[in-house]
Design a protein that fits this description.
Length: 524
Amino acid sequence: MGGKLVLTKLPNSAISRRNILVRPPEPPIEVLFPDPTNSIYIGRTKIFNVPYYWTYDNIANPHIAIVGISGSGKSYFIKTFLLRSAFVWNSNALIIDWAGEYKDWVRETNGKVVALGRNSYLNLLDLGGMKPYDRIKQVMRTLELLTDITNYPEQRRLTEQAIEKVYIEGKFRMDAHEQKDELGKPLVPPTLKDVVRVLTEQSQVGSYEFPAELENAIYRLKQFTKPGEDFFAQQSTVKLDDLISSGLVDLDLSGLPDETSRALAALTILQFIKEKMRLEGWSYYKGLKLLIVLDEAWKIGKDENSDAVMIVREGRKYNFAMIIASQNPTDISEAIFSNVGTTFMLKVKFEKFLDYLQGSLNFSNYMREEISKLGVGQCAVNLSLTSQIPYPSTFLIDKIEGEEPSKEFFLDLTDVLTDKQRRDVAVSRSVSFPKEDFRRRLRQFGLTDERIEEFTKTFEKNSRRIDVVSFVIMLERNGIARRNINEFLKDAGIDDMTVINIFGKVDMKKSGGIGRDISQVTLE
């Protein structure tokens, strides 16, 4: 039978309705575009330009992982997601803020900031509605994650025994949720200082068979009870109910002295929230009662025994979702990627990170190539759907369409371009980076909030634009190492040769050398 082959131009919308004999590169419209009154708008898909609304109704669980390098739009996406969740579902949100990155934004949106380490305390032995026996297990698991106590079974036994003793001394019933005295008043929980006291008294008696083990158990706990560092060994000033029912809340951990202290706070809060939600039980609720953001929390996102991983593995048991975000995918346990309902992949820089993501999420080589070419604000989405699917579960979003305008700062490159580059109209005279990303990087470099605010005001006084040589001189005068400045400039998109020119101009200016005039900006 004869026939003709006719070439016809068709729009994408017409192609998308046809039954093509290959796997479509995107899920069907019923997955991408559910009820918009009960879902969160993200953006349009790259291939068929379909609006994508996120909901947890058709996926394994509501938990989310987000990865992307600095400046890829990760924080911008999180902020957009929280704002839209509050609008669509009236969700509360708690940001467990490792570096204080979100606190300024939370204040700007009339949210609440709670800063641990600045006259705010969290008693590690608070029960949060748990039985003392259950809380002791959690405390010991946390100490195992954050210290080397697992390697010393006798010290572990002594510590657990001492914690149990201080609860009993306080008249707590070890197998009961509700703890009140004879007059019906809530019992006051013990603290780690009480545990150290019990162990010290045991040491002073001198009858224990292994005194070195006892002394080391005391020493380990004393790192949390030293004056000025006893953030977890005083009665709590932070109320759990206020953290999870006050709209948008930022729990700022940047005032704590080290990663161990920040991880201890984050794990304790997660344990309390999980228990509270467990006691309330699952109930039908449009949307989610609570969203918890863990950003750059590598210390508790990597270990498979942490409560972050346990919550993700337990899936839909509770009316809250965790958003776990990191620049480095390998800082997030593979168990999280294997169990979260959704993974958003923004710009990823290194092949080893792509290897890890592809091995964890099992997307195609075509998708890997597309992810490696993502620009700022673009992303790939991986869904763990509840039904067997005849189409790929990983697809591309052309651009995250956010709520808040992202204010940018600009570095003027004019003075460091060669004459040939200046004549080339295609060569950019400036680079830009998001204001919040800049502030976050300065925090990572060790600058105080006061100095960061001065930097910000300097940009804003100069119409958000400073020449790059003066900018580098400002950073060096504030003690920021040149290798860190070099990394910052490259992440902003400045090529190696231009970076060399920048530092050459900086050295010339600082030595009083003669060259092109370079404006100099000083901080007030």
